[in-house]
Amino acid sequence: MHPPTPSLSIRPGARAVRAVAVVAALTWASPLLATDSLNWPAFRGHNALGVSASTSLPIEWNGESGEGIAWKVPIPGLGHSSPIVWGDRVYVLTAVRQQGESSLKVGLYGNIAPVNDDSPHSWRLFALDRSTGATIWETELLEAVPKIKRHTKASHANTTPATNGEVIVSMLGSEGLYVHDMQGKLVWKKDLGVLDSGFFQVKGAQWGFASSPVIEGDRIIIQADVQEGSFVAAFDLASGEEVWRTGRNEVPTWSTPSIAPHIDGSQVVLNGWKHIGGYALDSGQELWRLEGGGDIPVPTPIVTDDLLLITSAHGAMRPIYAITHDARGDLGKGEDVDEEAVVWMLPRSGNYMQTPIVIDDLAYFGMDNGVLTVLELATGERVYQHRLGGGSTGFTASPVAGDGKLYFTSEEGDVHVVAHGREFQELAVNELGETFMSTPAISGDLILFRARNHLFAVGAIER
């Protein structure tokens, strides 16, 4: 479902800027990424930052002719789950309809009806050779009729797995939580009940589950904002035992948690509409909360050195918030917020599906209709705005970046390569030749695009 295109007018100074608090926020944790450019262990890589330390990423290729393509392999079924990488292996999750091919309708439209399909599906996890794309192993997690319907643009495998190099965690929503070892052997699984993340205003509009799991130390963090009984929880990575669970007064959301520092220790940061918030990683205790996001939150919170960047769309508010790491208590509602904790905010400016990306002192926000807005991270002031494509094609996949380049992929499979900087420069537009909904992954000098029917490895294989 796509709402009307939101106003992109920026109001610099809508909240006072505490310059001292954002001096260190002008980097994107490059020291962490610089030590590990090969592994891409979860949705958008390390803590959903989406930025690689690679210094040799491709600019031009063609998915149909094969130019610039290292390898291309078919992936059965339908899945919007992103590929992840650890070492010399790529892992992909998919849902295979047992009777014919699953339908998929891309584009800019507002139909809220789910797909009526009671066919059995097989959820499968693949391990592929990073150099060739060859299948190393395949394991079936479950075969069953999905308990919840999906949206016409969604799949039954929306969530991206996570790995720490020892195990792989897969979250299937109503079909459960699964942990496998690196050879594909099941370690444990857990039934979390029916998790209906449909449209809160029309309970029959089931859309499927999309929040991906996060591994942090010896715990798995799950955000489950659903029609009834929303919660955030931590599970023991080794055993599956529930460590803590904190209820949330929240309607369905589709955002993945992020992990950030806090003066009292690490925190789990969640997007939301009624309840944007931070929770203590060790106990699940609420540290701070803020009400008034867009009413269908999808983007994952972005953690910079000193700021939490949170945005969402749909409904009247559609804000962008820049929040300090050490916020405490009730931060307010909508535009009436604690100005010490909320460094700046922009109402009616947030984006819907894409998680933003931060590089150096710039924050990039991509709209569903291809409009790209670049803001100063420290102040929220607009640097530039430009449309990618002709305006009739949807953009759902979140951007990724590296080597001074950002990659924005349309639902039609056109990849716009944009130079990082304070002026818009489009370096190339490349065709994959298939529809595309999944956020790419970067591993070394390869970009992995999971399209409708194939997984593409674009770039050079290191020898």
Which key phrases capture this entry?
single chain; 463 residues; mainly beta; Lipocalin; six-stranded mixed β-sheet; four-stranded antiparallel β-sheet; 2 helices; 34 strands; 2% helix; globular; disordered N terminus
Oligomer: single chain
How would you describe the shape?
Answer: globular
Structural class designation:
mainly beta
Question: What about the largest sheet?
Answer: 6 strands, mixed
Strand order of the largest sheet: 14-15-16-17-21-22
Helix content: under 10%
User: How would you state the average pLDDT, rounded?
Assistant: 91
Q: How many beta-strand elements?
A: 34
- The name of the CATH topology of the domain at 19-54 and 71-353 is Lipocalin
First and last CA, distance: 44 Å
CATH architecture name of the domain at 19-54 and 71-353 = Beta Barrel
- Report low-confidence residues grouped into runs of 5 or more: 1-34
Number of helical segments? 2
The CATH top-level class label of the domain at 19-54 and 71-353: Mainly Beta
- Radius of gyration, whole Å: 20 Å
Percent strand? 35-45%
Structure description:
This protein is an all-beta fold and 463 residues long. 2% of the residues lie in helices and 37% in strands. It has a domain at 19-54 and 71-353: Beta Barrel (Lipocalin), CATH 2.40.128. The protein has two helices and 34 strands. The strands form eight sheets. Strands 14-15-16-17-21-22 form a six-stranded mixed beta sheet, with no helix packed on it. The chain has a four-stranded antiparallel beta sheet with strand order 1-34-33-32, with no helix packed on it. It has a four-stranded antiparallel beta sheet with strand order 2-3-4-5, with no helix packed on it. The radius of gyration is 20 Å and the shape is globular. The N and C termini lie far apart (44 Å).
